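Why does residue order matter? Because the sequence determines the fold. Keep that principle in mind as you read this record.
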Amino acid sequence: MPTLESGPMRTVDVARRCGYSVQQIRNLERDGVLPPAARTASGYRVYTEVHLNSALAYRALAGGTGPVEAKDIVRAAHEAPAARLLARLDAVHARLDRQRTELALAKEAAAAIAAEPMAEVRPADAMGVCELAAALGVRASTLRHWDAEGLVVPDRRDGIRRYAPAQVRDARIVHQLRGAGYRIEALRRLMPDLRSGRHGAATLEAALAAREAGIAARSRALLEAGPALLALLALLPPTGAHG
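Structure:
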């Protein structure tokens, strides 16, 4: 763990202690994640504990929030009072908590939907786009988008979309998984297995478990960022500004 007694550091020293390349450290300084480094008479950068802890905090945060938001959060530590940084972190934790709640609901609903027995398909059971959209609480354009992406492909009668019971079930599953944060690309790979009926429940369970593991990994990354963020705040003036 970095200490206040550490002396001036070169770019390569910071890079090694953070597990980054020299160019990555320069890029972080360019992007404002690290404050501007002092220069020697010959033009070499001189880094301090502030730079090191900024880079360490960014590295940990990037695993929990993604690189763009991680840069914004660390920049906030330099540019504004600590309260703004803490508010940004609270927002990230709240978002993860919301994703956990949505995932739990999706797991319960999607498993129940996938396990429903499918009765013999009858023409009278089919639903139109507007009917199904209203039942799901989505726009008709959303169903058309899912059709175009191959997620839920309805039958067509005289050019009009009609959703048979099996397709209605698929739409309900897609709706729940989209609510849990699944992207179109991931659903495009997942839906064929769910439709097959042979491994549908297991496939769905595995997909939701993977999503849960991803949320847990981001939570751990935020936890790991804490010591570096606290060390950074301890090195900065109360307003977060320095110079």
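The CA atoms of residues 60 and 225 lie 5 Å apart.
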